Amino acid sequence: MLQAQLTIDPAFRVAPVRRRTFGTFVEHLGRCVYTGIYEPGHPTADEDGFRGDVLALTRELGVSTVRYPGGNFVSGYRWEDGIGPRANRPRRLDLAWHSTETNEVGVDEFMRWTRLAGVEPMMAVNLGTRGVQEALDLLEYCNIRSGTALSDLRIANGSKDPHDVRMWCLGNEMDGPWQIGHKTAREYGRLAAETARAMRMIDPNLELVACGSSGSSMPTFGSWEATVLEETYDVVDHISCHAYYEEKDGDLGGFLACSTDMEHFIASVAATADHVGARLRSRKRIGISFDEWNIWYLSRFRSAEPPTDWPVAPPLLEDHYHLADAVALGGLLITLLRNSDRVLAASLAQLVNVIAPIMTEPGGRVWKQTTFHPFAQASRYASGDVLRVEPVSPMYDTAEFGEVPVLHAVATHDEDDETTTLFAVNRSTEEPVTLEIDARALGRDVVITSADTLTDPDVYARNTADAPDRVAPRANPDHRADPLRVVLPPVSWNVIRLGLR
Ligand code: AHR
Q1: Which stretches of 193-333 are assigned E, i.e. beta strand?
Q2: Reported pTM
């Protein structure tokens, strides 16, 4: 059996647990909006057409922010299409996803949904086909109380109070050649800076996110961030990171270690931002908004036949996640938490049906994918401060990342209720790990109050509408006190709670 040790000490504080780490994303893509959050006529739908079953699971997932309306979609979007009487709303071609957008749901409906879900909206503006003026118009429509053409239009459309959106993304993945209106870093940086400056004239306290790279393997990675930040440093708060991972060529061990790439991604972007800051003699520190991250079997999507028609809300990117995907996702969450000093916000892409923790049948059932569980547990139990833990762990070899530790972990500590939670992933595909925890710094009487594990003898086990709880966290009886010890099954996500005896 593999052995590992770690020490938990409240002195090793990284940063507060940030609620915005637990954000997600709703894009007008596939069935995320239509038959996802919105389906009039569904047995659980309210008078506005929002599915009650999806709302309930969104709350259970513990979502903090929701980014909207894209994604690639936003780079061709005219937000005015989605306001006012539904009968007057145009149907449009959505070039990003080769679909037809009916515009039945727009900004006012989405804001209503966020209030029902108890989440903070995070809006993206179109810097693909549009620019400064349209971003200003949307901001005026959303955030000005009354007395101007667009704020009064919002009121006339039924939203009396301003939507008060604090966080705004300046476009989406503008480094990607697939993006409508794709730009060079200099072109984008200038446009983002002009847009940010003008938006701040309306409200200097907005939080603005400049587009970073859409992946660490982009050919412009690093230089893109440097150029964009040279243009925008003084007027933005965050730079975005996007990353998707999948198991490739049957390399499960390598896949389970994908957070190694995310760790490196964050460190590289932070270093690049600080380098630009140093050159500008600035004391400001740019945060990271990891506003798209997930497991996505992108290679399958890319190899599918290109569509020839323009369907409404077709099933797109509907990945069905297995246990190993959930464990890999848990590892990514651990990495985001470990970097809470720099990653100030994150969005799991996406929320429902589209590479999502929540799946629906049109007109029918809803269920939790395997990936629902690590996210929901981390959102629920991470509180207080993030503590750095440095496990002494056996290593294993991967083709992509070289030697990596079998055990990946982070802890949080809440001084108020004296609870400490350890989140840990066992990446071994073969063996359990016996983990010894040195928690003396928390006091003599600390014990393991509960241990949950998400695992399955079949690493490719999935949940379905018929078997929604096939993969779900179960109590792990294999722990004891003095010394504190817990056995983590192979390929598992674990939540170990410590408290006073
Ligand atoms: O989340 C799916 C897509 O991935 C988004 O639309 C885009 O921003 C990214 O490439």
Answers
A1: 207-210, 238-245, 287-295
A2: 0.97
